Structure to design on (204 residues):
């Protein structure tokens, strides 16, 4: 079933349109559970992504890059750019049924930073925190001489920042980000663990 989002309501309407059977939301939920479906947060994927091209790169082009890097004593950096805000709330929290958990958030003092970083299969991490917009000038500055990026690293940073006491100023947000990035930079095994994700297992 290809769609932007299949909710119980969407499935209910589909069943009604296709089979002229009207079910309640609860009944639809029961059926989905019985069929092995569970509510999950969708993975975002760009419409422009071409799976066949990605697979070809992984199976054919990447091995050649890896071979050359080993022969020349080089490193392969996997990189990404991310935005970091002090109002970001991530993860889930357990609470008694019917009692929605509350997390303290900063109000009216939203602060934003950018970061570019890279990680390697050997566990090395490089990063640069930017106060302002990320552009080509910052990218040039970042790669001169050896600063780099990666998505799993970004998620690690955001998760840690969001679980700490709310930071109300940009200076404190910067300090919190810098402290955790310094921690990551000295823990190779933590960075290596990023590559255990099945979606990036080809990079191991």
């Amino acid at each position: 079933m290809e769609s932007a989002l299949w909710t119980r309501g969407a499935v209910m309407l589909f069943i009604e349109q296709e089979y002229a059977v009207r079910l309640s939301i609860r009944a639809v939920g029961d059926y989905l559970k019985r069929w092995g479906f569970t509510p999950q947060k969708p993975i975002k994927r760009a419409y422009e992504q071409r799976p066949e091209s990605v697979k070809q790169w992984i199976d054919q082009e990447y091995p050649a890059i890896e071979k050359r890097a080993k022969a020349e004593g080089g490193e392969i950096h996997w990189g990404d750019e991310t935005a970091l805000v002090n109002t970001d709330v991530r993860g889930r929290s357990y609470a008694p049924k019917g009692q929605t958990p509350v997390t303290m958030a900063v109000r009216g003092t939203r602060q934003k930073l950018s970061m570019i970083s890279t990680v390697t299969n050997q566990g090395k991490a490089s990063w640069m925190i930017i106060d302002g917009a990320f552009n080509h000038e910052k990218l040039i500055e970042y790669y001169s001489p050896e600063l780099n990026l990666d998505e799993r690293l970004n998620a690690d940073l955001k998760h840690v920042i969001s679980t700490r006491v709310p930071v109300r100023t940009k200076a404190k947000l910067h300090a919190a980000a810098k402290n955790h990035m310094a921690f990551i930079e000295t823990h190779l095994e933590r960075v290596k663990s990023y590559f255990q994700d099945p979606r990036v297992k080809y990079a191991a």
